[in-house]
Fold these 4 entries.
Entry 1:
Amino acid sequence: MSRWFGRFQRKDSWYDKYDNGESGRPVSLERARSESEWRGALSPEQFFVLRQKGTERPFTGAHWSTTAAGVYSCAGCGLDLFHSKDKFDAGCGWPSYTKPIEDRVVFTEGDRTHGMVRQEAMCAGCGGHLGHIFPDGPPPTGDRWCINSASIVFRPAD
């Protein structure tokens, strides 16, 4: 499905595929761990973002300005999430992407915290909080996946 968004026609937008952008939680999270295992495996900042749904301050994360070719994986479980070819500078201070590598690697749920209505993006492997998705990105999808640097690890292309 595609529809017009501003001056361009959106193609394969997450918001077109899922009702209000909310895909829902997968049946199982194959890479889940106990809280104590997560605390031992993650840095304090990664634990805050991935497990406690925290947010790093804008323009402070390791990947917001990265332009090298490669893949961004979940810092919690290693699942490949985003490709650098889909990354763009949204000017918001967090790494932003037009789409995930595959729809199945992420899921979204409604988030009504902090007086806002938005969609939370989470890793489908471990359920870790990644960031949020907004319908104000560039073509072709019109989506902006706004992701915390602490929730991802960059692997440069070979």
Entry 2:
Amino acid sequence: MLGGDSLEGEEALAAFQRIINKSLNINLKPKDIYPVYDYFHITRNKLNFVFYAEVKSTKKFNGLKKGNLSWLTFSETLKLPFTAQTKQDIVVGERVINARLRDIEAKKLQISVGVSGQKQFVPR
């Protein structure tokens, strides 16, 4: 999991964008960044913001400044020794992403039905 702090006066989304760019050398556009949720982190005594971003393709990470990174599935991340709060962030993030994907699919079906002008049975 990547994380970091915002600079003074920096918005949370801009901080996420900067941290990802610096850590992974991926230049995210704001339109590709989505909030998951935010909360007051008692242990750290500060607000914590959780985001995810859509990337066009996965890439291999070479020459990183510190640590090793790789792409993992959600179920793989839950096996790692993260704190309970970080695991909660991952679970909520997965649910938010899955809900968004369902909304996208539902809109595609609505457009399909609307364009043809005919009623269609859509299995659920």
Entry 3:
Amino acid sequence: MVRVAPAVDPASLLGVVRIALASSDGIKVGVAATGQVTTGTRPGLRIPADALRRSMVGEDEVVVCDGGTAHVRKVVIAQRAEQGVAIKEGLKPGEQVVIDHVLGLQDGQALVAADHKRAESGSAGTGSDDKARTAKGVTNK
């Protein structure tokens, strides 16, 4: 059973949710918890906020890597959240989005996968910068 308060406190933006647990082993009465209530879902793709940039005219855009080449793409944002940015229009499922050093990239610029660049330079990947770039996937050549 779940009961959700019909409104939130306008000052704190907090609300009350009461839930019934199947087992309460190890949980004491009155203990506080943090949770997230999903009220609906929207179609779209989620990308890391670092992948998003602004054009010279203030439009939101991302850089897509296709065949080792950067392609600057205008996007429409559906929602910004802690988990990333939901894209409503401008990206297709499966496209590779550059999320490392996107501000300096230009349309048509050559790109290389971060793992490939690290292997060419002989780096073992122990530095924090290498680790971050590898996790992000694509970087400029």
Entry 4:
Amino acid sequence: MTHFKTHSPKSADVMHVTRNDRVVTWELNRPEQDNGLDIDTLQAMESSLTELERDAKQRVCLLVLGKPMMFSTGLDGELVKTCFGDAAIFREIADRLNAVLDRLEALPLISIACIEGVCRLGGLELALACDMRNMSMEMRHACKKIKPPFYGFPAY
């Protein structure tokens, strides 16, 4: 059972999707909310993934980036509050986010997370679902095992 709407005209505003020749770019566009992933952002990712899966032979690369100094802090704060108030909603959102990350990881093209600034929680999960990560020296994250220099490293 879906507790949330699955389409919103806001989807285009929360994540800009651009296509340039054989490269597709996802630019998270919620800097006031630390690029938190909300329902509209998940919808935009799902729609774009459907298109990428259908046109995989026409594309070679997906770039995922946030606004300067803010990659993503994961799930949107208001959505997290809602999830903690209702176990069924929490399970639905966790399953939906995991499905997006699984689809991103399974794409038959190269995906690169371009990380500048803050990258935590679900934002770090998003970055790890990509094949490679390109990190600026200004990147701040919550994973103690990752230390400078950040030259990008493959997913395992």
